[in-house]
């Protein structure tokens, strides 16, 4: 009996050691995975930053090369002006990147979606008029309140509306629709959709949309949608982009109710 | 001087204009398109010898444009430019039939030399196509 107990105890000790070894192995594997994910994400970010900076650099280099070839001509003055403009563009991109990456406090309060939208839209009245864009607003007052850091969510909406208007330089329809919606896990919330009737985004380009510095416009910084996504996710929400070439693009944000 | 035509497709206006000015000095006729959608009608109407396109464009991208140009006229040489952190997209473009690729920021003289070679290749392909058609017509003609 005592011998049996001793054997059982010794077996338990062995199994315990084996388990401890496996746990340590799993922890090492998890740490390696986290590290490799971090490196992959740094790699993606670096590639995006490189792209965002190399385009203005390409213009700078080409303009400088032309000035060197024909200094003192009227064309050279034009190229020098282009160089100044490109330097300013680079500076704007760097400023936006710093804003994007700077940590900021999160102060959520219960808020109505209609109030957020009403705060944002007046800033676009002039652009809507000059671009000939019709506004189709469908924001019911009966929607539940959401927990919102108003400054951040308004900024996110500004970025989405601004992108939508950029996609319709010669007119179209800007649709803002809000509705009650649950997320995949059944948590109640509100969905806000910002839809343009622009030319849309090609499927192969769509997967890169929202990555920092990714832009399809030469004047864009490629940080608008990335900033919006970051702010929405800070609220426990999510942002999805869908698009059809020739029909337009839709950005849907979902936010949990207060 | 040469009478060849080059179409530059890039929404980076400053760069596109600088490329145009440089290549025009080298004797090329150069047109600019800011995106693939407006480039396609120009490809059909101008029948350029060479197209120089960025990989990333608003709407349809440079790789899809390359495919459309290859379908329309495989003798047109397409040079691809990329500002991306990696050159995978550009290498993929070469595998799909692009003449060559250049990384941004690029050297205008290097681009000009590449355009010269691309134009020569394009001319040779056109010549070959012409003789093949002629040969086909001869063999099909009744005796």
Topology:
The complex is a heterodimer of chains A (258) and B (143).
Chain A (H helix, E strand, L loop, with lengths): L1 H68 L4 H28 L7 E3 L1 H8 L4 H7 L1 E6 L7 E3 L1 H17 L5 E11 L5 E8 L7 H4 L17 H11 L3 E7 L3 E9 L2
Parallel strand pairs in A: 2-4
Antiparallel strand pairs in A: 1-3, 4-5, 5-7, 6-7
Helix pairs in contact in A: 1-2, 3-5, 5-7
Chain B lengths: L4 E5 L3 H13 L3 E5 L2 H11 L3 E5 L7 H11 L4 E6 L5 H8 L4 E4 L4 H33 L3
Parallel strand pairs in B: 1-2, 1-3, 3-4, 4-5
Relative strand content of chain A? 15-25%
Largest sheet of chain A: 5 strands, mixed
Q: Please report the distance between the alpha carbons of the first and last residues of chain B.
A: 44 Å
Give the overall pLDDT of chain B as a whole number: 89
**Structural class category of chain A:** alpha+beta
Helix content of chain A: 55-70%
Rounded Rg of chain A: 26 Å
Primary descriptors:
heterodimer; A: 258 residues; alpha+beta; five-stranded mixed β-sheet; two-stranded antiparallel sheet; 7 helices; 7 strands; 55% helix; flat; B: 143 residues; alpha/beta; five-stranded parallel β-sheet; 5 strands
Describe this structure in words.
The complex is a heterodimer of chains A (258) and B (143). By secondary structure, chain A is an alpha+beta fold. Chain A is 55% helix and 18% strand. In chain A, the strands form two sheets. In chain A, strands 2-4-5-7-6 form a five-stranded mixed beta sheet. In chain A, strands 1-3 form a two-stranded antiparallel ribbon. Chain A is flat, with a radius of gyration of 26 Å. With 143 residues, chain B is an alpha/beta fold. Chain B contains five helices and five strands; from the N terminus they run βαβαβαβαβα. Chain B has a five-stranded parallel beta sheet, with helices on both faces. Chain B is globular. The mean pLDDT of chain B is 89.
């Amino acid at each position: 009996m005592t011998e049996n107990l001793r054997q059982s105890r010794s077996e338990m000790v062995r199994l315990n050691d084996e388990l401890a070894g496996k746990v340590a192995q799993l922890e090492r594997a998890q740490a390696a995975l986290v590290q490799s994910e971090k490196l992959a994400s740094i790699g993606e970010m670096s590639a995006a930053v490189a792209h965002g900076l190399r385009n203005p650099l390409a213009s700078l280099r080409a303009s400088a090369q032309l000035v060197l070839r024909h200094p003192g001509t009227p064309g050279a003055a034009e190229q020098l002006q282009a160089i100044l403009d490109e330097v300013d563009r680079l500076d704007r991109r760097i400023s936006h990147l710093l804003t994007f990456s700077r940590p900021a406090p999160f102060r959520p309060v219960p808020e109505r979606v209609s109030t957020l939208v009403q705060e944002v839209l007046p800033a676009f009245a002039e652009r809507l008029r000059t671009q000939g864009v019709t506004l189709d607003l469908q924001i019911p007052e009966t929607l539940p309140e959401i927990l919102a850091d108003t400054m951040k969510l308004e900024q996110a909406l500004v970025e989405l509306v601004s992108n939508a208007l950029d996609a319709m330089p010669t007119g179209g329809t800007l649709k803002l629709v809000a509705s009650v919606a649950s997320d995949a896990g059944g948590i109640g919330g509100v969905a806000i959709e910002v839809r343009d009737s622009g030319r849309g985004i090609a499927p192969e380009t769509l997967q890169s949309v929202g990555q920092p510095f990714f832009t399809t416009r030469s004047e864009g910084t490629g940080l608008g949608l990335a900033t919006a996504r970051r702010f929405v996710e800070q609220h426990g929400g999510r942002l999805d982009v869908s698009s059809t070439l020739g029909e337009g693009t839709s950005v849907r944000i979902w936010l949990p109710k207060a | 001087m040469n009478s060849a035509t080059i179409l530059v497709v890039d929404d980076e206006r400053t760069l596109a204009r600088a490329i145009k000015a440089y290549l025009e000095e080298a004797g090329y006729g150069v047109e600019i398109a800011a995106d693939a959608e407006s480039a396609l009608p120009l490809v059909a109407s101008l029948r350029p010898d060479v197209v120089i396109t960025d990989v990333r464009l608003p709407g349809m991208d440079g790789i899809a444009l390359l495919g459309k140009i290859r379908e329309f006229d495989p003798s047109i040489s397409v040079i691809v430019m990329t500002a991306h952190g990696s050159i995978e997209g550009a290498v993929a473009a070469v595998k799909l039939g692009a003449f060559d690729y250049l990384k941004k920021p690029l050297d205008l003289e290097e681009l000009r030399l590449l355009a010269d070679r691309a134009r020569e290749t394009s001319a040779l392909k056109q010549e070959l196509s012409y003789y093949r058609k002629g040969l086909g017509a001869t063999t099909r003609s009744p005796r």
